[in-house]
Design brief:
- The protein is mainly α and 165 residues long.
- The protein has one domain: Methane Monooxygenase Hydroxylase, Chain G, domain 1.
- The protein is 83% helix and 0% strand.
- It has 5 helices and no strands.
- It is elongated, with a radius of gyration of 23 Å.
Length: 165
């Protein structure tokens, strides 16, 4: 609320609700990705610990089964997070394009006239820049998911190779 009070020209801006949604979605996806990455890191630690254990027989096979279930769950959650990020990126990109078209349009449409009127023009450009920043954050989150998934797979493969020797 303080931000809105500090920028009264934004209170009636047509992009306000889109901006609020983008920020809320960014926060939600950031928590989702952080949770998935933490879970993947825990699986990697379990895999590394498993690699140091040997000759536990029946106990070892149930531990391996549990870790395989954890691996599958993490891979699935990683894919779900990546898909949510991808879908949100597409929508944010579309919105950014529409704003860009409004800013650069030689003949404003009825829809864009309010976005680019003198009172709203600076705010419109600020919204566009913030959407671009969020876009970069989403790409970074998607990279975190991919790295966590690849690290899990790599650790699993290394441990499989080492256990063969």
């Amino acid at each position: 609320m303080e931000l809105l009070n500090a920028s009264p020209e934004v209170k009636s801006h047509p992009l306000l609700m889109v901006g609020v949604f983008a920020e809320l979605q960014r926060d939600r996806l950031e928590k989702l990705v952080d949770g998935v990455v933490d879970q993947c890191d825990k699986v990697v630690l379990k895999l590394q610990k498993l690699n140091t254990l040997s000759g536990l027989g029946k106990e070892m096979s149930s531990t391996i089964l549990g870790i395989n279930v954890d691996l599958q769950e993490c891979r699935l959650k990683t894919k779900v997070a990546e898909e949510e990020l991808r879908a949100t990126l597409v929508q944010l990109h579309k919105m950014t394009q529409r704003v860009e078209e409004s800013i650069n349009s030689p003949t404003p449409t009825v829809r864009s006239e309010h976005w680019m009127c003198p009172e709203s023009a600076d705010s419109t450009i600020r919204f566009k820049h913030r959407f671009e920043e969020i876009n970069v954050e989403y790409e970074s989150m998607a990279a975190k998911c991919r790295i966590a998934s690849e690290e899990m797979t790599y650790t699993r493969e290394v441990i499989s190779i080492e256990s063969e020797y």
